[in-house]
Write a structure and sequence with these properties.
The chain is α/β, with parallel strands linked by helices. 40% of the residues lie in helices and 16% in strands. α3 runs parallel beside α11 and α12 runs parallel beside α14.
Length: 390
C-alpha cells in the first residue's frame, strides 16, 4: 500500500495532468495539478489483481452481468455504512455523471427547473444546463467553518417548475457531512415540493475521525418513493476511468423508469468496470481503503497547517472527501489576483471556486489525493506565491 510512490501521469491522456496548458495556461512539465478529483497513486492491489486475471484470460467478448457484482455492492454498503441494499434495485450506469444526466433526462423536460444548494460540485450545473433545463440555486449559509441549509431562502426561490433536487452528500466542495436531522429535513422539503431527490453519495467512503456518514435512504426511509442514490467505487479506489457507477433506487416504480430507459438505449457497463468494482468491494479492498484514509489524514493535516500559515488564507477543516476548500478572502485580494498568483507564480492548477456557484467566489479547491511529497511541494509553492503577505 504505497501511497507515496511518485507516478508520472503526463502523456497518459489524464484529464487531470494533460490539460494543464490548455485549461490553465500552465506548462505541463512545470505545473502541479490539483483539480480533477481522482488520485495520483495506484489503486488497491486486489483491484489490480482482478484486471490481471481478466487480461490473462484474454477474451473480452459479450458477457452476462455478474450477480456477484451486485452482491459485492450489497456487502460493502452493509459493512461500511450499515445500509441494507436490495440487489434488485441497483442500476449500473457509466459513472455518476452519466447517472445524474440520465435522471435529468427521465424526470424532467427542457425548460423545467432543477434545484441545487451551492457552492456545490460544478458538474451539477453543467449537466442541468447542457440538458436545456434551468438551475434554481439556493446558497448555503456559512457559519464559521461549516455550511448549513437556508430553507427559507430555498422556499423563496422555488418557482413551481422544479422537478428534481440534485443533492450532494458528503458535500463537495466543503467536505461537510450532513446529520440525520438535516437529511430528513431535505427529504421533507423535497416532498413538499414534489421533487425527485438524486443524492450523489460518491465520496461516502472517505470519512475522517469520529465523523459518521449517513446514507439518505437510512435518514429518510419514509421518502423512498422519491429517492435515487448514486454511488461508485471510482473515488475511493481511483477507477473513474472505468466509467462504472450505480444508482440504488428503493422504489419499484422509480427503479423501473430508470432501468427501462437504459434498456431502451441498449446501455450496458463495461466488463472490466464490473470486475474492478467487485474486487474493490471486498475485505481486501476495505483494508486498503482504511490505509488510504490514514494517508489522506496526514496529507490533510500537513496541507492545512501550511496553508493556514499564509496570512489571510484559510483551509476549512475536512470531515470527508480528499478535496480541500480554501478561502482566500482574508487576503483582501479580488479573485483575479489570487487566481493569477496560484497559476502563474505557484504554477498550481486547482478547481476554481466560482465554478461551484454562489459562495465560491473567494475559494479554490485543492485535491489532496497524492503522494505526500506533492502536498509538501504545493505548500512550498503557495507560501512562496504569497510570501509578500508574511
Amino acid at each position: 500500500m504505497d501511497f507515496n510512490q511518485i507516478i508520472d501521469r503526463r502523456g497518459t491522456h489524464s484529464s487531470r495532468w494533460d490539460t494543464l496548458e490548455s485549461k490553465f495556461g500552465i506548462p505541463m512539465d512545470k505545473g502541479l495539478s490539483m483539480w480533477t478529483a481522482d488520485s495520483d497513486y495506484k489503486t488497491a492491489p486486489c483491484v489490480l489483481a482482478a484486471v490481471k486475471k481478466a487480461l490473462d484470460h484474454g477474451i473480452f467478448g459479450y458477457y452476462a452481468k455478474p450477480e456477484s457484482y451486485k452482491n459485492a455492492i450489497q456487502w460493502w454498503m452493509r459493512t461500511r455504512h450499515n445500509w441494507e441494499v436490495d440487489t434488485d434495485r441497483i442500476v449500473t450506469t457509466q459513472g455518476l455523471g452519466h447517472a445524474i444526466a440520465t435522471c435529468i433526462d427521465i424526470f424532467s423536460e427542457p425548460g423545467d427547473h432543477v434545484l441545487i444548494f451551492s457552492p456545490v460540485y460544478l458538474e451539477f450545473r453543467f449537466k442541468i444546463e447542457k440538458a436545456n433545463r434551468i438551475v434554481t440555486e439556493s446558497p448555503l449559509k456559512r457559519v464559521g467553518d461549516a455550511y448549513y441549509i437556508d430553507f427559507d431562502d430555498a422556499e423563496a426561490r422555488m418557482t413551481g417548475k422544479e422537478k428534481l433536487l440534485i443533492w450532494c452528500s458528503p458535500q463537495n466542495p466543503s467536505g461537510r457531512i450532513w446529520t440525520t436531522e438535516e437529511l430528513r429535513s431535505v427529504a421533507e422539503f423535497a416532498a413538499r415540493h414534489d421533487l425527485i431527490i438524486v443524492s450523489d453519495e460518491i465520496h461516502h467512503d472517505i470519512v475522517y475521525g469520529d465523523n459518521e456518514f449517513v446514507p439518505m435512504d437510512i435518514a429518510a426511509p419514509e421518502h423512498r418513493d422519491r429517492l435515487i442514490i448514486g454511488t461508485s467505487a471510482s473515488k475511493t479506489f481511483n477507477i473513474a476511468g472505468m466509467r462504472t457507477g450505480n444508482l440504488i433506487i428503493p422504489d419499484k416504480d422509480l427503479y423501473e423508469r430508470v432501468a427501462g430507459r437504459l434498456y431502451q438505449l441498449d446501455y450496458k457497463a463495461n466488463i472490466l468496470g464490473y470486475h474492478m468494482t467487485e474486487a474493490a468491494y471486498s475485505p481486501e479492498g476495505a483494508e486498503w481503503a482504511d490505509a488510504q484514509i490514514v494517508h489522506l489524514e496526514g496529507n490533510r493535516a500537513e496541507f492545512d497547517a501550511g496553508i493556514n500559515a499564509i496570512p489571510g488564507v484559510h483551509s476549512l477543516p475536512l470531515a470527508s472527501t480528499f478535496l480541500a476548500w480554501v478561502d482566500f478572502s482574508g487576503t483582501g485580494m479580488p479573485f483575479e489576483e489570487f487566481d493569477k498568483r496560484i497559476r502563474e507564480r505557484a504554477m498550481i492548477a486547482p478547481s476554481v471556486g466560482p465554478d461551484f456557484g454562489a459562495g465560491g467566489e473567494t475559494f479554490m479547491r485543492f485535491n489532496l489525493a497524492a503522494p505526500r511529497a506533492r502536498i509538501t511541494e504545493a505548500i512550498d509553492r503557495l507560501q512562496s506565491a504569497f510570501s509578500d503577505l508574511q
